[in-house]
Amino acid sequence: MLEPQSTALFILMMAVFFALLAGVAVAKQPAFRVLAAALAFVPAMLFGMAAVNKYYDYYQTWGSVAADLGAQGLTSVPEIPAGASGQRLAKILGKVTGSRTAARQGETVRLTVTGRASHLTRTVLIYLPPQYFQPAYARASFPAIELIPGFPGQPQDWINVVGITQAYLTLLHDGAVKPAVLIMPDANGGPRVSLQCLNVRHGPQDATFLAMDVPRALSRSLRVAPPGAGLGHRRVFRGRLLRG
């Protein structure tokens, strides 16, 4: 299959490039030689892009490319209001997600978090497992895993590129993992900003936002365990998971 990182794709682009170069050499008409030379830039450019993608181990499938470039991100996920009471939030989630579907597949929602300690306001993607919507777990408080995107990266890359929600749901159905809430915060505040999740002197307090404000806000708004042993961290670097 000609997936973004397949060897066959690289060979095909090289073959097209050299075929066009051969056309430049053998073409007798100047117009055809110019056209072949211009077209040769296309596979050369695509080869470079594919090489960068393979080096960073980013896009694995064309589906992930389409999802990422198709803007299937924060705006396509239902938003839940911040500061709502637990009872009111439960009603809102039932209306927004559809309890039957959510009880089978879980649901991804977004929440705007205003940090009390960091004074940062950013959007957080949250995947609630199917058990969150099932009557047997109505009083359960779920552990959480905070998934931090690397740079360049955005919260939705965990879903569109890594496919974390579907992979986690498969593991959950197989009994390989226990139900947990997946938290995907905006770690940088913008697609071209890289603060390495650190506090900046007289600047953005990213570490405080991620380690304190996000867990506290979610434990107040959702049935998520408070910061402590029930909270884990994962970070992506060049497409690989690292312990945070």
Write a brief structural summary.
By secondary structure, the chain is α/β, with parallel strands linked by helices. The protein has helices spanning 7-26, 30-56, 62-69, 86-105, 157-160, 164-173, 206-221; strands spanning 107-114, 121-128, 144-148, 181-185, 231-237, 240-243. A hairpin with a 2-residue loop joins strand 5 (231-237) and strand 6 (240-243).
Q: Key features?
A:
alpha/beta, 2 domains, 43% helix, elongated, disordered C terminus
How would you describe what is shown here?
- A hairpin with a 2-residue loop joins strand 5 and strand 6 (240-243).
- The radius of gyration is 23 Å and the shape is elongated.
- The protein has a 6-stranded mixed β-sheet with strand order 1-2-4-3-5-6.
- It has 7 helices and 6 strands.
- It is 43% helix and 15% strand.
- The protein has 244 residues and is an alpha/beta fold.
- The protein folds into 2 domains: 7-56; 74-243, Rossmann fold (3-Layer(aba) Sandwich), CATH 3.40.50.1820.
- Helix 1 packs antiparallel against helix 2 (30-56).
- The longest helix is centred in the first third of the chain and has 27 residues, at 30-56.
